[in-house]
Design goal:
Blueprint lengths: L12 E4 L3 E6 L2 E6 L5 E4 L1 H9 L4 E2 H12 L3 H17 L3 E4 L5
Antiparallel strand pairs: 1-5, 1-6, 2-3, 3-4
Helix pairs in contact: 2-3
Length: 102
């Protein structure tokens, strides 16, 4: 299923795809797909989201964790988190399960 046809909703569960390696270099998390040789450079917050996705999570769960760590309102960061997750889906770094419940 292509990223453009994936339904992202309140119950969507996000999880890492296999085959990505990552390492912190300064304040950035550098990621590379072993399969496609695509690489990504994530900011500190983006890298933290990647770390949190070590276990499958909903967007709400991610927002709550980030809000606690960065002392922000989870509603304030929701749009940015969803946009970032969509970018990771497009890069085949994560997958979305709209049926699974965590």
């Amino acid at each position: 299923m292509s990223a453009t046809t994936i339904e992202m909703n309140e119950r969507s569960v996000y999880s890492r795809r296999d085959g990505w390696i990552s390492a912190w270099v300064g304040d950035e998390l550098i990621m590379m797909s072993a399969e496609s040789s695509v690489y990504l450079s994530l900011s500190h917050v983006g890298g933290r989201i990647w770390e949190l996705l070590e276990a499958p999570r909903t967007a709400n769960s991610l927002c709550q964790a980030l809000a606690t760590e960065y002392t922000m309102g989870s509603v304030d960061i929701r749009a940015e988190v969803l946009a970032f997750l969509e970018k990771l889906v497009t890069q085949d770094a994560i997958e979305v399960d709209s049926q699974q419940v965590v």
